Amino acid sequence: MRALIVNPFASGVSEARLAAVQAALPGDTETFLTQARGDATELAAEWSTQAEAIYVFSGDGTYNEVLNGLRADVPLGFVPGGGTSVLPRALGLPRDPVRAAERIRFGAPRRISLGRLNGRLFAFNAGIGLDAELVRRVDELGRRDDGKRPGDLAFGMAIARALAGRRFRYPESLEVEGLGRAAFALVANCSPYTYAGRVGLRFAPNASFEGGLDVVAPVDVRAARIPRLAVQAVRGRPHAGFALLGHDLDRIVIRCDAPLPAQVDGEDIGDIEEAELVAERDRLTVLV
User: I need a surface site. Which of 25, 60, 128, 154 has the fewest CB within 10 A?
Assistant: First the structure.
């Protein structure tokens, strides 16, 4: 049999879409709905040793929970059900959940690498400082009465308030071992690093699911430099004079001057003072 893990509170999941996704997947697929944080990790731990494949219809947070619950090397298929769903998009799957489900039903297996930050696996990115702070700000918005997250406008306003609260200034606050001091650190396992609507942000354009980890750590960031950083992200051309760069690395160590927010795959994992990020090459089978 196969298992389908669903987060019914993800912004792109509804009863109608779930029914259509179920119809597109193999007939022997059993569906499990999560109700609280951590449920997907427990379901993945239980079914990874029994199922022929595990499908996940959710957003990136639930994908990450599943990764961290696996107890066997079972193929995973990711159906986009979140507001952004970076992982399936970065794997080249359609944004429409039904088309993605049809694709992974007959999809070819692909081996990819994962990253690990202080023991926590991640699929596409991790960050210390600015992007983790923004993740936290968005989380603080809470959820609507139906359990879903607020829309893109609310997210954009939260990000604007965060930047304005710091007067658009991020001074050097951490050390990337072997590279130098920086304001914050973005660690990528693929490109794009994330998305702004339909636009892929390519902070680390050479990062690959088949390689190690890439780090991009901007140095002293001021108001005048933020537009330049945004343009570089869209164009995929990070400037070595503006940021510390590392490509295809097996290990990255970052030490913070004071505790800073950290995130993996868009999930807030609290404040940290030191991070060890390790590339786990050829770690996971995905269906594409």
Answer: 154
